[in-house]
Design goal:
about 55% helix, 6-stranded mixed sheet, 2-enoyl-CoA Hydratase, Chain A, domain 1, single chain, 3-stranded mixed sheet, alpha/beta, 11 helices
Length: about 250
Amino acid sequence: MIISGEGPVRQVTLNRPDQLNSVSPGLHRSLATVWRDLSEDDEIRAVILTGAGRAFSAGGDFDLIARIAREAEFRYDLLAEARQIVREMVAFPVPIVAAVNGPAVGLGCSIAVLCDIILISDQAYFADPHVSLGVVAADGGVLAWPAYMSLARAKQYLYTGDRIDAVTAERIGLANEVVPHDELMDRAQALAARLAAQPRQALKDTKRVLNVHLERMISSVIDFAFAAESETFALPSFSERLEKMRREG
């Protein structure tokens, strides 16, 4: 992960481009701690979250997922971190602008959608294939999607794992704006600068009030969601499915 910028705007970049910014244990840990670290800097008024290279994030990397299935203690610790990611992003005091520069899949989709304003490249898409892989979609999809789209839509895309292209994402409420790919970062930086220029306390407290709705929704389901996800990670059928995927490349 790279944190860049100065003055009132910071940029957080997921930086594993050769692996499509898939989430390793180290990156997962960074995602759990970066928001509290940034919140301690009173100079920061807005943050941009994006990915290096051609993807936003492909979600958990294969070795991470295999270890979750294999090691109960690691699974417990990682899912505790996942809870922390969700709660810290929602509680972060200033706006987070997602610049979704490419595919955002699984956990990658979750962290994008937990941002306050979501700009998506016309070449990008969302997908949450947890169910198709045999696990509960606990780290974002079931928690937040019903706040942004109809419950029927959320069920459709979580049950099937189908891709949601940029235009569809904007239409159903999962993204704020589709941006031509080459203009994405300029648009994100301009928006972040505009937000940073707003009166800080008014913006901060408006975000806090709005996110009370999201916090209450998440709090009502988060414990069950992660407990259910943990159980499905431990199923022999999941390990068998994972091994089949490894063999097929």
